[in-house]
Protein: M3 family metallopeptidase
Organism: Brevundimonas kwangchunensis
Amino acid sequence: MALSGCATAGAGAGGTPAATLQADAAVARALLPVQTPRAELLQPWTGPYEGVPPWDRVTPAKLKEALLEGIELRRAEYLAIANNPEPPTFANTLVATQMAGQPLQRASALYGVMTSNIGSAEYQQVDREVSPVLSAAGDEITFNERLFQRVKAVADNARAAGLTAEQTRLAERSRDSFIRNGAALDAAGKAELGRINTALSNAFTSFGQKVVADENAWTVIPTEAGVAGLPASNKAAAAAAARARNVQGWAIVNTRSSVDPFLSFGDDRAMREQVWRKFVNRGDNGDGNDTNATIAEIVRLRAERARLLGFANHAEWRMQDTMAKTPAAAMSLMERVWAPAKARVAEEVADMRAIAGHDIEPWDYLYYAEKVRKQKYDLDQNELKPYFELNNVKRGAFYMAGRLYGFDFKPLPRGTVPGFHPDVEVFEVTNKSDGSHVGLFYSDDFSRAGKRSGAWATTYRSYSTYDGVKNVLSSNNNNFTKAEGGEPILISLDDAETLFHEFGHALHSLSAAYTYPALGGTPRDYVEYPSQVHEHWVLSRPILDGYMKHVETGQPMPQSLVDKIEAASTFNQGYATVSYLSSALVDMDLHTQATPPTDIDAFERDSLARYGMPREIVMRHRLPQFNHLFTSDAYSAGYYSYLWSEVMDADTWAYFEESGDVFNPDIAARYKAIILAEGNTTDRGEAYRRFRGRDPEVAALLKVRGFPTS
């Protein structure tokens, strides 16, 4: 099913006749004022593949100029829609709003990358200056009473007007979003909400930049004894990091991809503690990069906004447009998993103490877990790394996409299209069935000063058909340590699964088959599901045989080693679950408080104590560095989403496994058509039932994690 190539001649992806789409687009285009952008970075993208971002022409000054002018151009377009004397229709209101602001959208795609992936001081300054202006400009649209009334009229009369199901959903979701974001407030309420949103925008930027600054640090290890136990690849990377920073010895950079291997294999206990403390105290050192006051301001502002909008707390407001719907529903799932996870931690700690002969501290956990893994399962993680060479792992992910969904990824020669950094690789994506073009995939794999930590996916241009077919420009971003001298880059099994996870987000975008781009975004507790499920294919036999080959021998991973991995698949799940879930529980606790806390460190300690957090483990993301929560509203009161999505993910993987073929073509085709391609054109819970034939079962998740299912 080549759903991503192009719409059929007779209808748009959502079933609207092509003639209707063309007529609606013509109405909308005629309504919007003809404007010629002055700024270079607002111009339509040119070049091959339907136009590509002009990364080679971006500078901080040009970007700021483009963003500010783009806001003005969009303002004129929205005013034309709002002040149109003609009665509101789907074409002159909803289609017009889809079409408005395209120059600003192009500049914003550049803005997101330059601030996240490059992050120089100059781009950070642009971010500080422009982010509150963008926030206020967005509020201006939401608070436009005439515009809101037009959107509301179209939504309220959708059925009488004979709109299609997809058009009706777009209109109703647009109306509801306006209301949820303050469009129904009186003038005083809108003014107050605008003040809050601008203050939050400033605080989000401040938080993110402080965390990046604390991550642009390292721990120097001056002697060979300090890196004893490290795998050769990690040791070489630490030496390269030291040379790059003009220090003697080895440097453990203050990001997870460098810290976790050191905590897992470094024999020097005192040095492990030093590296651990530096990492877990990011943003919490009482200096200029301390984020505690910023967090207190954010949670106070969020509470004010929730009350203004008629909600008891921030969590209730944020969860209106989610699958869980309420904090209580999310908490119910988390609590069901929390108790068995804590019980498993007690078992894991007992096993480690038996080997260590002393109490286990948080900087000991990963180290002694590896000793237990070796003892119980004869499995050494270092035995796995030679099979996971970065380029081969990527090729394995491409194979998965081809086998499941019929996509082909072809690397473009350097210079074919611009990149924002020399490290970036670009691939053309086509449909295997007919060679038709789908889009481009940008891959930025390596850490650098200024780049935010972690791994994430972005989309520079989303698919749509309402005004002609638009291809997809998607990207993945990782923070692997670059090797020197052409040495192979070996990553862990966990890193390989993370790469497949982010690639799942890209596949979600590349599979799109909807008409209107506003229906591309899915609920926060659904969006991680299509990414998480793809992690399971890393160890599938065809991918292991074809791509996960030993870097020296060229032989695929033997089944005996795979059997050990599978036997140990639920090993250390107490640690993994408690580390993640404690962050999700504290997030929900923080955002359901009647009175927002002012002492963030004390709140974190007290919240963990209430949940009975094991002393041997620290939250995966402590509040002072929790970018998910405090660089935007996106995951706030929503970090539970990974667990909610994992219920569907585990249930889906069980579906493939039970079929006897984890690449089952019928299931894969239905998964692509229903789960990936539809975006948010239908209710996602109902979509899952269409795909699976029933609601997802939590038992599958508990089984995957090795916990009791009853």
Notes: The beta strands are 218-221, 250-253, 407-411, 425-431, 437-446, 456-461, 472-480. Residues 1-11 have pLDDT under 50 and may be disordered.
